[in-house]
Amino acid sequence: MAARTHKSTASGNGLRPRRAKPHKRTRAGGAGVNGVPGIELGPMTGYIGYALRRAQIAAFTDFIGSLRQLELRPTIFGVLLIIDQNPGLPQSAVCSALGIQKANFVPLLNELESRKLAVRQDGIADRRSYALHLTAEGKALLRRARELHAEHESRLAKRLGAGGRERLLTLLDQLTDAAGS
Q1: Rounded CA gap, 64 and 145, in Å?
Q2: 130 DSSP β-pair partners
């Protein structure tokens, strides 16, 4: 496997390419891309963004499977958590916290209401906005979802090894802090 060349820091009078250690994989998961053997990914295996995306897919696949029995999707789980932690929060604040566009949030909220998991109440400060609250059914479902989520987190942490979860979260925080998030 050939080593990839990356731009280096300034050295002497200018920039000099340096040779990086080759990444241990040249194919996604060692068996090709999405189970298709023989697909070379080349330098993509060393790209942070690509690695983050592949990790997200792996984590979400497990998470979606964990919540399937409750008929919850990760976005709905996040909405329930935010409302539970912040009863009376307006819709716009939930959207901002989770990065959901307001137009996409209305169908989510309609789903929560039709399943009797959350209710909209008139806002105190502004009657044009709604304060969101979980129902007793929503709180019960969220309790069970949190148990399933804890099992999911445990599986991921086990794959990362001792101290891996904390190291990964620290590195991800560094990326999001640098991006101004």
Answers
A1: 11
A2: 122
